Amino acid sequence: MVEHCxxxxxxxxxxxxxxxxxxxxxxxxxxxxxxxxxxxxxxASHRKDRRFYELVEDTIHQDFDYRYFAIIDENGQARAVQxxxxxxxxxxxxxxxxxxxxxxxxxxxxxxxxxxxxxMVGCAAGEGHLDGADEATxxxxxxxxxxxxxxxxxSLDTPLVVLKEFPAxxxxxxxxxxxxxxxxxxxxxxxxxxxxxxxxxxxxxxxLSKDMRYKLRRKFREAAQAGPIEMSQxxxxxxxxxxxxxxxxxxxxxxxxxFEKLTKEFLCELGRRMPDKVRFFLxxxxxxxxxxxxxxxxxxxxxxxxxxxxxxxxxxxHLYFVVMRDLISWAMANGYKSLHSTGLNYDPKYRLRYLLNxxxxxVRHTSPVINCLLxxxxxxxxxxxxxxxxxxxxxxxxxxxx
Length: 402
Hints:
This protein is of the alpha+beta class. The protein has two domains: 3-188 and 358-399, Aminopeptidase; 196-336, 3-Layer(aba) Sandwich (Aminopeptidase), CATH 3.40.630. The protein is built from 14 helices and twelve strands. The protein has helices at residues 3-6, 30-33, 50-59, 101-109, 135-155, 175-179, 200-207, 210-225, 241-254, 264-273, 314-317, 319-333, 346-351, 368-381, and strands spanning 24-28, 65-72, 78-90, 115-121, 160-167, 183-194, 230-234, 278-285, 288-298, 301-309, 338-341, 355-365. Strands 1-2-3-4-5-12-6-11-10-9-8-7 form a twelve-stranded mixed beta sheet. Helix 5 links the parallel strand 4 and strand 5. The longest helix has 21 residues, at 135-155. The radius of gyration is 22 Å and the shape is globular. The two termini are 42 Å apart.
């Protein structure tokens, strides 16, 4: 085991007091983190704390190779842990199929054309975060990582390096990566809705347009005519996982952009390992589950993470809007002030008056020559440029803003 993780962290000075040049960065596997007391509280201020990273590694494989960067001070003590994974990445994953049909011809001869082994810093299932107690600490950690990450990528035989979906609030801390030749580009953003209203009807009356209010009333009326739809909240989906997992797969298969694919084990273990952070919701009609949602919570915010819908009835019953109505109503009744949603499906979010929460990708090839070429084509590979709904949001400019 490594010495810096065997020691208890009796820190005599904050990381911000340590110069980045004096920090070392070491690659660890999960089993080595078990001896690192720092890891036990990593990302504690986020809804997806270190338990979530462990859960993802244990239950979502997909040829992901999970590792961790340990940032170590001159005394040999770990000051921060930054998760990463290695994966074969299709560089055209965010580009519409109609625009890259020619690639299939090239891949008949060169199967790995526009595919690269990638070192991806962040979380396989969600946005990335920097470990550290405050902004100064995170900046120092980021500089230490930026100074050494290309060397680690070469040793791990991963020519492409990506910082995956870091919120815009990290732009100042991650500017050091831009200075090292990384290109920053927007990823598909999350979305946020202010739900600080008396109830759902108050929100609809005060926030939505007259046309949208009329459409919602019609949708809910048509859904009610098909029979009652009842929502319930549970803490463990294990007894119903065989019913809900096919609904998740229906939504997953319809998505134009995919990365991680959840497993039944993930859904079952999520409630067991993180009961304080996770809420499960089910919708039944006539006793049959027709929809479910997995949400996480942090202070007065609730995050809609994963959705499952039965598409044999989803369109007829306007299930997406029924789910949103019931989630918003439950969140309001339980004191939550904002509802956050993962990316994609932006048209209804625009109509419901969400705002965008920008997420950034930082991309670099380890070869300076190839990196120059890559930077010239990255704007064409940027996924947000092909979703016209994004431009309708009032804060769309923040996706590219500094």
